[in-house]
Amino acid sequence: MTSHWTAAHVAAIDRETMACAPLFPKPQPLIPGVDLWDYWPVQEEDGSQAVIAGGTLFILLSAPTLLDPEARHGMARLRLMHRVGNVWRDLGLLFENGFSPGSREWSGSAIVSGDHDHITLYYTVAGTRGEQVLSYSQRLFETQAALSVVGNAITLSAWSTPVEMLVPDGIDYMRDMEGGGAIGTIKAFRDPAFFRDPADGAAYVFFAASLARSASFWNGAVGMARLMPDGQWQRLPPLISADGLNNELERPHVIVHGGRYYLFWSTQQKVFADGGPTGPNGLYGMTSDSLDGPWRPINGTGLAFANPPRAPFQAYSWFVLPDLTVQSFADMIGIAHVPVDPAEARHHFGGAPAPDLRLQIEGDRVWLA
């Protein structure tokens, strides 16, 4: 059953009373000369952060620092880092040059085995290898590497040949990802997030998608697939539809809290439908008593919290863990408008992890602790 996030839900957002994240200063780069954004921890199958070598392994999108920070999307490579407390250690690019079957690597999720001897990565391959002009095709792949930890030394073996998990069918999910190519118009088949359902032990991935049979340009959705006994992923109908409302429901992921399911995603004001109600850049979500739904917008609107009004682009790509920690990256810091000039954008771009936040949840209500 597909549930719907609608204009009526978003119209009920009260900009005067909505929950907002606190302001924070522009962080120092973790790696000089490198921008970092969308990131996720290596997780146990229950979704908790895995403790590895006394800390947490993270996979991040990375690119060389360029004048225009928006150019990073066309150069994105996955990077491995290790955090102990507030200290980050760079372990380098995750893959060798030419490993992925695309021109760049986008977001996903990673799960460590129960005995911590290997990691499975689910990620987005964007474009095609060797293309001269960047395309916006998106494919979902999985790969594995053996993990070895000796003291503080963390070693990964060569990654297995990436295997495509599933493809859009042109019936539920759009095949054409281009959407004109401009920021905010690109269609979605990306951001696979692994989830093990405690109710029956079944494994799923959720992903950002675009509806195939839609009369609207704004046809964002949350897709899902289930892992079958033969090891193949079975494509399922969309879990959430934002048809006619919003173009991109990015990095969707599910946690279980208090016996309920909570599905979260990130979206931006600029990708809401023209002429309709718009929400702020923020963390959104829905809740259900079962994975099958029906799903209800948290807080009646879907909005968990927004960036602060004085800095509406301060952070993005929020990721909620089962302990209700919320991770994100520092985007445009200390600015209330979208920079047009690349030099201005570079001055304000954070390009590093943002401070962690924490949610509180009670039934359909979600708020910042």
From TrEMBL:
The lineage of its organism: Bacteria, Pseudomonadati, Pseudomonadota, Alphaproteobacteria, Sphingomonadales. InterPro entries: Glyco_hydro_68, Glyco_hydro_beta-prop_sf. Belongs to the glycosyl hydrolase 68 family. It comes from the Bacteria. This is Levansucrase. One of its GO terms (biological process) is carbohydrate utilization. Pfam families: Glyco_hydro_68. The record marks D191 as: Transition state stabilizer. Substrate binds at W37, S107. GO terms for molecular function: levansucrase activity. SUPFAM superfamilies: Arabinanase/levansucrase/invertase (SSF75005).
